[in-house]
Amino acid sequence: MRSAARLYAVQALFQMETSGQTINAICREFEVHRFGATYEEIGEFVEGDAEHFRALVDHAVNYQALIDQMTDRALVAAWPIDRIDPVIRALFRAAGAELTQMDTPPKVTITEFVDVAKAFFPGGKESKFVNAVLDHMAREAKPSAF
Fold first, then answer.
1. pTM score
2. CB within 8 A of 145, min separation 6: which ones?
3. Which helix (H) or strand (E) holds 43?
4. Residues 6+ apart with CB under 8 A from 20
5. pLDDT tens-digit readout, 107-137
6. Whole-number Å distance between alpha carbons of 97 and 113
7. Cβ neighbours of residue 129 closer than 8 Å, sequence gap 6 or more
8. Are 136 and 73 a contacting pair, CB within 8 Å?
9. Is 15 exposed, middle or buried (0-12, 13-18, 19+ CB in 10 A)?
10. DSSP alpha helix (H) spans, the chain
11. Which letter does DSSP use for residue 104 in this model?
12. C-beta of residue 117 within 8 angstroms of C-beta of residue 92
């Protein structure tokens, strides 16, 4: 359920950025209309850990400047975070929230968010890029774990 919460958090952060919705509106929408919902034309959405989802979204929003600065340091100088694909940017923010504000072991966070990248970009190189950036971020956020 935490894996699903991570995927939903990335979707929510992306949707917040592109639509301008508030954190309360987006969390309510996902918890009511996505977690475990079934739609005839789409199929069934898996349940997610609502508490973990809310924590990721809340921390990503409240610590966005810190997370974006850490992400910028992990990226090549020519690629600041505002030039990154918005889905990957949302992923870095959700993962950064977990790395900096939660007790999840960093290797678990990296593995989980690389899997999220694979879900959004199946067969692409994005998951390797995400792995490299998150590894750098994790070593900065929690160096004692390495």
1. 0.90
2. 105, 106, 107, 138
3. strand 43-44
4. none
5. 999 999 999 999 999 988 899 999 999 999 9
6. 12
7. 88, 117
8. yes
9. middle
10. 2-19, 23-33, 50-62, 64-74, 86-101, 106-120, 126-141
11. S
12. no
DSSP state of 122: T
Written as six digits, the tokens of 2 are: 């935490």
Distance (Å, whole) CA 116 – CA 111: 9
> Any residues with CB less than 8 A from the CB of 64 and at least 6 apart, and which?
93
Which amino acid does the sequence have at 49? D
DSSP class of residue 77 equals: T
CA trace torsion 48, 82, 74, 145 (10° rounding): -20
At 40-76, the pLDDT tens digits run 554 556 777 889 999 999 999 999 999 999 999 998 7
